[in-house]
């Protein structure tokens, strides 16, 4: 009888522990994470503003350490109309206003993406708010800046 009670208690403990793991995984907040699939919806640059409809095929994907794109429009990441991928890292950087010539409020665009270890090209700043990813790069006063807006798929 002791064996049966011990076995039942052990089984109940395992079930409860597994239930706790699943609940904690559901509570993770991904609303500010860059990781995921993003679809291009808008570009603002020297040519003006261009809007893209849902299902346009321009997808930007981030995993823990890699990125890839199937952009069919001009992309800050590939500088052309083709597929690309590689490695990235995120660094804290509060120089967005100096780098872009814009005047973002303090606390916005405080991180940037470094692709393939390239620290000499224009800085690529990003901001994630709920299901929207906004990327800015280049110097806007000299018509060299671009702002791209993506939505989480």
Average of the residue pLDDT scores: 79
Strand elements, count: 9
| Binned strand content | 35-45%
Low-confidence blocks of residues: 1-29
CA radius of gyration = 22 Å
The structural class is alpha+beta
Describe it for me?
- The structure is a single chain.
- The chain has 153 residues and is an alpha+beta fold.
- The chain is globular, with a radius of gyration of 22 Å.
- The relative contact order is 0.17.
- Strands 1-3-4-5-6-7-8-9 form an 8-stranded antiparallel barrel.
- The protein is 20% helix and 36% strand.
Which secondary structure elements does this structure contain, and how are they paired or packed?
Blueprint: H1 2-26, E1 36-45, E2 48-51, E3 59-62, E4 66-69, E5 84-92, H2 96-100, E6 111-115, E7 124-129, E8 132-137, E9 146-152
List keywords for this structure.
153 residues; alpha+beta; eight-stranded antiparallel β-barrel; 2 helices; 9 strands; disordered N terminus
Please give a quick description of this structure.
The protein is of the alpha+beta class and 153 residues long.
